[in-house]
Design brief:
globular; disordered C terminus; mainly alpha
Length: about 325
């Protein structure tokens, strides 16, 4: 898996370079308006884990190709309506953006859809919530900075809280494997975008990654699924594809990359702790029952970890 909660707001001006983000300066506090988009984006990502269960029996690559093709069209239309330029990738940017598409879109969604067939959505959401540890270390290095001591200390707290929220979920060895793949892909979704956010901004990275992902998935569908696969989607599966295309892709991508560009990948990574909370909430809404004491304790731990890692000003790295 951002904002002032409107995806149109960041279109007014290009997103700042990651190297110039507030998280890079020890004298600047992180405004709530820069964190809110990331929170909203992670809420949508968390809810997507539950929604993806509807696609467990669907033609996987066909359903996801339709999702991302629709999302790419929506993003391009929104960008044109907002007057946002979408520069064409050049040189190594093609590789970075293709990496974002391959890991954060193609492999991540394969891991989620296949994973929920072997594990409760909570287990997959916990894997996503473990991303702060990776982003807190690797992200700042890609941005030319040392990792922040505060973020490094806060990340395990966020992860511990997420595990409390979703701990004890049903899974098997395959479910654990898919969860680990989801973790790696979620980290790649952010880290591989860092080198290109400066020139392309949230809009450009989102648009190019989404259309590339659609092309990759369409190619996989052509080789592994029959041409009639799209007609096999039922009403519930079409509804899931629509939700994922509009909210979890077109909207959430813009929100997430807005926050990464504004505060840096290290601090933004802490917000992934929101995803399992959203997954738990989605489980309640869909009839999963009221959370128990461990969930409420985990919620408090996640909030404490986020508060510790996101409060400013940020000290120098270790």
């Amino acid at each position: 898996m951002s904002t002032s909660t409107s995806p149109s707001r960041p279109a007014a001006s290009p997103s700042p370079s990651p190297s110039a983000s507030p998280s890079a300066s020890p004298s600047v506090r992180v405004p709530v308006r820069d964190l809110a988009p990331g929170v909203a984006g992670m809420v949508l990502v968390g809810s997507s884990v539950t929604v993806s269960r509807s696609l467990a029996e669907a033609p996987l690559f066909t359903a996801q190709a339709v999702r991302y093709a629709a999302a790419a069209l929506i993003l391009v239309l929104l960008a044109r309506a907002a007057g946002v330029p979408l520069p064409r990738p050049r040189g190594r940017e093609w590789l970075w953006l293709a990496g974002v598409a391959a890991t954060g879109l193609v492999l991540f969604n394969v891991a989620v859809v296949r994973g929920v067939a072997h594990a409760e959505p909570a287990v997959i959401a916990v894997a996503v919530a473990s991303v702060p540890v990776l982003l807190g270390v690797v992200g700042p290095l890609l941005e030319g900075r040392r990792p922040s001591r505060r973020v490094l200390l806060a990340a395990p707290v966020v992860v511990a809280g997420a595990v409390l929220v979703e701990g004890g979920g049903r899974t098997d060895a395959a479910g654990v494997g898919w969860a680990a793949l989801a973790l790696a892909c979620e980290a790649g979704f952010t880290l591989l975008a860092v080198p290109v956010l400066g020139r392309h901004g949230a809009w450009g990275v989102s648009v190019h990654a989404v259309w590339m992902g659609a092309v990759m998935l369409a190619g996989l569908a052509a080789f592994t699924e029959p041409p009639s696969a799209v007609t096999e989607l039922g009403a519930a599966q079409w509804a899931a594809v629509g939700y994922l295309a509009v909210l979890v892709t077109a909207v959430a991508f813009l929100l997430w990359y807005r926050t990464v560009a504004a505060v840096g990948s290290g601090r933004a990574g802490l917000l992934t702790g929101v995803a399992p909370l959203a997954a738990a909430g989605a489980g309640v809404v869909t009839g999963g029952g009221v959370p128990g004491p461990a969930v409420w304790l985990g919620l408090a731990v996640v909030i404490a970890g986020l508060a510790a890692g996101l409060r400013g000003p940020e000290p120098d790295g270790p």
